[in-house]
Amino acid sequence: MLCVMGVTPRDRTASKSREVTPFPPLAKLPRAPRPPADPRQSSGTHTIGAIARIAGSEMHVSGPNLSTGFYASAVDIGRLQAALEHGLARFDETQIETRWDEIFGWIGRVARTWVQRCKRMRIERRQMGIRIELETQDDLGYYEYGFDVFPGRGTQSK
User: Fold this and answer.
1) Chain-wide mean pLDDT for the chain?
2) Most buried of the four, 66, 84, 101, 108, by CB within 10 Å?
3) Which strands make up the sheet holding 118-125, listed edge to edge?
4) Could you count the other beta carbons within 10 Å of the beta carbon of residue 151?
5) Where are the beta strands (DSSP E) in the chain?
6) DSSP 17-43
7) Tell me, what DSSP letter sits at residue 144?
8) Are 73 and 40 in contact (CB under 8 A)?
9) What global pTM score does this model have?
10) Contact 16, 44 (CB under 8 A)
11) Which residue has better confidence, 59 or 116?
12) By C-alpha distance, which of 84, 148, 139, 146 is closest to 117?
């Protein structure tokens, strides 16, 4: 067997295969709705702005999503569910199981972009789909949402 610097041809092939993007690729993140500023979040917006002004250029300040997606008190579950199903439509159950870590991360990124001030998120694979539970908050309270995503349904015509 040919061996170059302790690496066999098989080793080189295996390392290259780890660099290949799995098929099908994950969908790009769908563009989140951009509503006007939520007046129910004025206290939170004011507090984060004050911290940013005090910190100046000495540190980087980050806070909750207050600019894109649905208000914490008014998440359009149907639109979010449809966006997730559309993005996952190309995956069958085996691919979802095999690539769960990747898909889990993608779902989380979509939800954080599409939902303002998400305090808690639970994403769980189930036998027939994916269960998503969200807890959000604005200045006036906490809100809980739960829904199921069925990836195969995203391929059906509307």
Assistant:
1) 83
2) 84
3) 118-125, 130-138, 141-149
4) 21
5) 118-125, 130-138, 141-149
6) HHTSPPSSPPPPPPPPP-PPP-GGGHH
7) E
8) yes
9) 0.74
10) no
11) 116
12) 139
